Amino acid sequence: MHHSKFFAPDWVAQTNIYEVNLRQYTAEGTLNAFARHLPRLHDMGVETLWFMPITPISQDGRKGSMGSYYAAADYRSVNPEFGTLDDFKNLVQQAQTLGIKVIIDWVANHTGRDHTWTKKHPSFYILDEQGNFTERNGWSDVIDLNYGNPYMRQAMIEAMQFWVAECCLDGFRCDMAHLVPLDFWIEARTELDRVKPLFWLAETEDPAYHRAFDATYTWKWMHASERFLKEELPVAALDKVLYRYHDEFPPFSQRAYFTSNHDENSWNGTEYEKYGPAALPLAVFAATWNGIPLLYSGQELPNLQRLPFFDKGPIDWCSDCQLHHFYKTLFNMRRRNAVLRSGDKAEFTFRLNTNHDRIMMYLRSRGEQQVLVVLNFTDRAQSVSLADHRVMGRFTNVFTGNTVDVDKHKHLPLLPWGYLVLEKLPH
Q1: At what angle are helices 150-167 and 85-97 packed, to 10 degrees?
Q2: What's the rounded Cα separation, in Å, for the pair 126 and 145?
Q3: What are the angstrom distances between the C-alpha of 47 and each of 153, 285, 292, 407?
Q4: Fewer beta carbons under 10 A from the terminal one: N or C of the chain?
């Protein structure tokens, strides 16, 4: 096990992350237009906003009519499509006044083809035998940076410091983090932690990267749950993934669980295309298992559209957010209940046996506090028998507010594709 020399800020353990796709969030697609949604998101219990890259987008090799967020033309300015640096500073300040943290997407593996560095510092890039810029992953609109160049590394760290210092950022979500050498991230975090303690989220599933990062992704879980729902895998295969996470990752590591994000929604379909009616029980799982729930723009509607990646196609907010209360309930419970702290040694998660192989039941406990979660991955109403000495006493159903006396009700009723979240707080 690799032990990190870094510590996540304490607020991270009970946070949630809401990914903002600015281009598609509003008809205007600007920072100022997005700001109008802050009171609603605050009411929903959103704790951390992750903005997809806010840097300008390269013209050369641009995909679609608007290009990819992930093809940066400059690391130190704001995409004019979204507004100005002052607009962003104001937005961060408004969010932080509401108690919401702000992190930005940082793309360190590559830049767009006409990034300012290509003219000023061509040695910052990997060059092929002919001396041309090059790219290893088959993305035609970007070129790879050279991590063998110490000056490039320093310039990259200074660009990150710029955003923290200028905008009082709370952290970074690092794109394709595993394509960048781990020693760079350790160096960057060492330098940046001197400015202020930040939250570091890596788009990777490599346990070693927890030496630099607080939280990583859970694609294995996402793919296994998708296959489980197509009846290609038994529930035991889901357990296997979760046990593997437990065994392979350092004990303090935090994992981000999601049913959608910008890549998934655009390329693989919405959570309803992938999971159908199981989307909600899986969202409950993401918010109650040991980890950090990650939500994508519009999931609270719910959004049934794939959002275009390189062109305009805004979210349709004309109706009320049907899932506002659903997410608010889960996020508020995470905030008030220390049993749901992520990556906490004092917290224990137990999978409990059920009488059905497509029902998942687990208990999270810490001292006298408990949260019991039951998820029905079938299209029929079910009754789950509970025979576990660890679970007894009076619980509150967080979605209905009703009291459930578990000693008397050894059978818990579940609706088709239903979910039950029972909370026991010490008297």
Answers
A1: 60
A2: 6
A3: 31, 18, 11, 35
A4: C
